[in-house]
Amino acid sequence: MNRITQILNIKYPIVQAPMSWLTDAHLVASVADAGGLGFLAPHAGQTTNPSSNEEVLDRMRNESVRSKP
């Protein structure tokens, strides 16, 4: 364990970058489950324009990280 893993409370010093249109909640959850730190960009993983920010938030809430709160 090094300082960055201690500060971020992660197992490995892996940080997955937020990439709009490529990153989705499933990828972020998988990275976190593997011991890294995942980031989700606004409107990430969307192939269509959402009608509202609430619609995007609802989609992202449906995919949750399984091993960390």
From TrEMBL:
What's a Pfam family this protein contains?
A: NMO
Where is the region Disordered? Answer: 39-69
> Polar residues bias located where?
45-54
Which residues fall in a compositionally biased region of kind Basic and acidic residues?
Answer: 56-69
Q: Which InterPro entries match?
A: Aldolase_TIM (IPR013785)
The record's section on PANTHER family has:
2-NITROPROPANE DIOXYGENASE, 2-NITROPROPANE DIOXYGENASE-LIKE PROTEIN
Q: What is this protein called?
A: Putative enoyl-[acyl-carrier-protein] reductase II
